Amino acid sequence: MRRSSLMLGTLIGVLLVTAGCTSTVTGLATPAMSNPASAYVDPLAPLPTPPTPNITWDDCTNLIKPQLSGQPNSDRDITYGCGRLDVPVDYAHPDAKTLSLFLVKAHLAGQSNRIGSLVVNPGGPGGSGADLAIGLSLSLPMGILQRFDVVGFDPRGVGNSAPLVCLDRAQKDAEAASPPRPNTPAEITNFTNHAHQFASDCLSKYPNLEHLNTVETARDLDLIRNALGDDKLSYLGYSYGTELGAVYATLFPNRVRAFVLDGAVDPTLNDVESDHQQAGGFENAYNRFLQHCIAQGSACPLDSDPAAEVTALLQQTAAAPIASPDPKETRKATDGIVTTAIISAMYDETSWDELSKAIASAKAGDPTGVFTLADSYNGRYTDSSGTVHFSNLLDANAAIDCNDSTQVVSLDQVESYSNAWAEQYPMFGGSFAWSLYTCTPWPTRRHPLPTITAPTAAPSLVIGTTNDPATPYAGAINLTKALGTARLLTWDGDGHTAYPKTSCVSNAVDDYLISLSLPPNGLVCPA
């Protein structure tokens, strides 16, 4: 997944369990296809004009504010609105079935010289933009909040916007615990059977499955802009959110005011190339984590050879998963859980010390720390009553990625890639290749992305982090070139995404969003 590391994890699911917030839709059935890759929808085909939308807003400050207690900047004088916007299920038939998008608006008291709304997307795909808007209301510079309302939306199929839920809690726990890289015939059979069952279950539970795609979400974004009353869109997209923003700029170049695209997805790569690039990005981040641990000396709990400690834990948990000393925790930590914990920590370099402690504790018999990191990545959380839930992040992520894809990778190809990539990237290469099989049995017509180009759009600001694991730096260079009028801002740092982590990046982004003044060409912000 490619998603922002800025979401407030404590807010995941808060809005989901609020009475009246969920949304469902019944619409046009999509038949299963024997060869879905043979049928594509032209992303640039002319379409009928959808009806003019309206957002119904309710004040939900009293719902959200208590959830922020204790968070930094939670004393900011901000009110929150929760809203609904009906959009077409199928933009080819805008007068037919609709689905209801869920939005959150954060408004700072005493705004002056208001510019409009800053619409935000956290990535994934599958991340909750509503949660992101709440988180950013506490972390964005005050200068931005004084000029913009921050508006986040749960994209179609995500969070509170007709959420796609294909797997139940037990199935997701089983999937999380499975080997990161299937090797034996039984493991391979289990993996492929799961992929086919997942595709079948998604289609049976969501007849509009093919319409969970980036192109139609970009069209939703334009309806949101219209409903907010902005002639042109100001947008902040992280990770996959950069892909969504780039698609919007390609479809609606004359409606771009200011686009900040942080943690850029590379528009020049196909699925195989993208996964291979991402495996390298995470491998690089993992090696930097090991170097960080070594540099700490005795302060790092993984002794003098942290790589050997991690390898030993992976071998241990593959052979004999570790039970938790907490009687309420019935799961055991497998090598799949440990690998996910490592991936989770790579998104934010401030989590590296947490990871080293979690690994050391797990080796000593307490896997609580690795469960915490893995659960954060998987969207698994426990509510105030002690009930375990999952967000639908993983379901939506797979569906959107597959609906956007035009590649069908065979099992033989996956095994070949896995073997080759494992040689190149020993920690992540073998397992990342297996993710390619998820879309092989996918049963819908595909909605591929358009070729990204927006030479007539207002200039965008693309941000690339030199050691970004999820969206390696080359993607920022290529997205800047593809858009045609964009400017590249580089942060020489670690972790996934950059704004508003440092003053150098923040000052450049703030000036651009407010005054449309781009930073100097070639600006590199230090770590």
Automatic annotation (TrEMBL):
As for family, the record states: Belongs to the peptidase S33 family.
**Keyword Signal annotated:** yes
Q: Which SUPFAM superfamilies match?
A: alpha/beta-Hydrolases (SSF53474)
Query: Which domain of life, per UniProt?
Result: Bacteria
- Protein name per the record: Alpha/beta hydrolase family protein
The family database entries (InterPro entries) matched by this protein are listed as: AB_hydrolase_fold, Pept_S33_TAP-like_C, Serine_prot/Carboxylest_S33
Citing just one GO molecular function, the answer is: hydrolase activity
Identify the residues that the record assigns to the Peptidase S33 tripeptidyl aminopeptidase-like C-terminal domain, covering every copy.
425-525
Q: Which PANTHER family match?
A: 2-SUCCINYL-6-HYDROXY-2,4-CYCLOHEXADIENE-1-CARBOXYLATE SYNTHASE (PTHR43248), TRIPEPTIDYL AMINOPEPTIDASE (PTHR43248:SF29)
Q: What species does this protein belong to?
A: Antricoccus suffuscus
Q: Which UniProt keywords apply?
A: Hydrolase, Signal
- Keyword Signal (UniProt): yes
